[in-house]
Amino acid sequence: MAEGRLVVRRVIEDGRFRVRSVLVNAAASRDLAPVLAALAPSVPVFSGAPATLTEIAGYDVHRGCLALVERPPARAAGDVLAAARTLVILEGVANPDNVGGVFRNAAAFGAGGVLLSPACGDPLYRKAIRTSMGAVLRVPYAIADAWPDVLTDARAAGFTIVALTPREPSESLDAFAGRPRASRVALVIGTEGEGLTAAVEAAADYRVRIPISPDVDSLNLSVAAAIALYALRT
Hints:
234 residues; alpha/beta; CATH 3.30.1330.30; Alpha/beta knot; 2 domains; seven-stranded parallel sheet; four-stranded mixed sheet; 11 helices; 35% helix
């Protein structure tokens, strides 16, 4: 389910996605008129008052625009590994805001793909798509069913595995970023509470931390991802 004018516009303009139907209020219909006109004649576009949209959807559609889109075929983890130079790997990140935020950061700082452990939230969940500002529709991703063996596959593909963790032993992000950059880097990020599992940290080539005030427990993981991706950008 794509929600909001920006996301729906990107879905339609992309051309890779099959739109099943669109539901808009009057304002969204006017704003998206040129884009909606590009849809195949067989795609129904329904228009209704805000109260009607709320009744149909079951929640307040305050952005006034929804599109029902067919889920694209799943990518293989190997295909994402093959195409990226900078990769983000998420372990156990279930919160859709964090998943979407990481994708938005990945797009902003030029990461070529995202791999997710099976316990991660669905990037195509409505809220994750919206939080990512549609980046989940553009940044290649795959669910790494072979977890954590995919880290071995990433290393075999030439990636340097960098675990983002506050635990010792780890070095500061500035110190790591000051070295000559590896040709391919995979940044591994875990949940805000438990962080990365011991097995994943042990499998990393480097453990890197972002120094913060001792008065603060941790950073939001999507914020930490943005800082690290900025420091490691090419």
